[in-house]
Amino acid sequence: MTVNAETHAGGNTWRHLPAAQQPDWPDQEALRDVIAELESYPPLVFAGECDQLRERLGAVARGEAFLLQGGDCAEAFDAVSAEHIRNKLKTLLQMGAVLTYAGSVPVVKVGRIAGQYSKPRSKPTETRDGVTLPTYRGDSVNGFEFTEAARIPDPQRLKRMYHASAATLNLVRAFTTGGYADLRQVHAWNQDFVKSSPSGQRYEALAREIDRAMNFMNACGVDPEEFRTVEFYSSHEALVLDYESALTRVDSRTGKLYDVSGHMLWIGERTRQLDHAHIEFASRIRNPIGVKLGPTTTAEDALTLIERLDPEREPGRLTFITRMGADKIRDKLPELVDKVTASGAQVAWICDPMHGNTFEAASGHKTRRFDDVLDEVKGFFEVHKGLGTHPGGIHVELTGDDVTECVGGGDEIFVDDLHQRYETACDPRLNRSQSLDLAFLVAEMYRDQ
Ligand SMILES: O=C[C@H](O)[C@H](O)COP(=O)(O)O
Ligand SMILES: C=C(OP(=O)(O)O)C(=O)O
Ligand SMILES: [Mn+2]
């Protein structure tokens, strides 16, 4: 990787276009200094890894693999601890094992992790007890605390985002390649969990089957490397373009631009305007790109996005992450999938069953019903089955901690429980038990389709 003038030319073409949801940095000089410093930092991920993920996502687009993408709505600097990261990873590994074994499909594992620090918001301000302050926009921008000082955007936070991402990714790499993710550990990932929860018990039974299958293969003399380590990739929403372009580098092998802040970047529902800065930025980098598609997306929008982001029609380059809402998916998704398929493009279709199903409980907590989440995934599978296309994966907000943020699930959480462990900095996440429940149900859907 090299940094040179060309880097910043190619990675900066978005600058003359309107960019939604950018922080209102009060001190532009401080911002410039931070950008210059970030430009000198080493890459967090390597271009070759991004290429490898693009190949894996190509298999998803061709119908040969399933994408599991998940993690926090908003990562927080004070949650960069071994315990939080291990719990999240463990949950994703358990979900991956369930989907691979019960769904009989290769699973591409991608975290909303090591960079998910910036949030687009519905409103610029928030009012509590008559006091109005700027909204919290993620730890990369301002503080969660409801005080005037905390809510002022501070560009120094972009450097903290880089360092928090680096520390997280370092631990993730150690966990996934250093023995912890060895399939022989399928039971160990469940140890602290099994007795207390129905999904933990169900998982334990599946882990016993995996063990038997592995013992059988060992006895036959098969002991592949794939059982010892796990390929795990990082992703986040490419929202704050000053950060993302400062982390964009020319790959010395190919001369192409890569945003080395994460393996996969996605453009959110609020920033996917076709002629605005985020799509322009994404069009310039070689990383695999996701775009969130909400219920107002037209087939023409989807086709123009393909034109802008995947002109070569390369499977794996572009992933459409639909987030319609359980009540709209059966209505809105068919036309998009149908017209995109008819155009000859091979995108991966992924279901985000979270963002179209948020509501406010009487207690004031932002929450989601597990049943709505499940129903949106069901609708997603039904639509793809009807059209003969591939339901490529799920994109979920989850945590490995036993929080009470979404209602329902096998180990049911009620609206009155929400206050007990409501810890999210932004949207409500599935807890570990709800995440495992979902993995089992999705594996059944996959097998049945
Ligand atoms: O994570 C997604 C968005 O940032 C979030 O849903 C916006 O939430 P808000 O409507 O509270 O701003
Ligand atoms: C902001 C998010 O989603 P969307 O852009 O789909 O609203 C998110 O994934 O946290
Ligand atoms: Mn969210």
TrEMBL record:
One of its GO terms (molecular function) is 3-deoxy-7-phosphoheptulonate synthase activity. InterPro entries: Aldolase_TIM, DAHP_synth_2. Its EC number is 2.5.1.54. Keywords: Amino-acid biosynthesis, Aromatic amino acid biosynthesis, Transferase. It catalyses: D-erythrose 4-phosphate + phosphoenolpyruvate + H2O = 7-phospho-2-dehydro-3-deoxy-D-arabino-heptonate + phosphate. Coiled coil: none annotated. Gene3D superfamilies: Aldolase class I (3.20.20.70). It holds the Pfam family DAHP_synth_2. Residues 1-20 are annotated as: Disordered. Pathway: Metabolic intermediate biosynthesis; chorismate biosynthesis; chorismate from D-erythrose 4-phosphate and phosphoenolpyruvate: step 1/7. Belongs to the class-II DAHP synthase family. NCBIfam families: DAHP_synth_II. This is Phospho-2-dehydro-3-deoxyheptonate aldolase. It comes from Streptomyces siderophoricus.
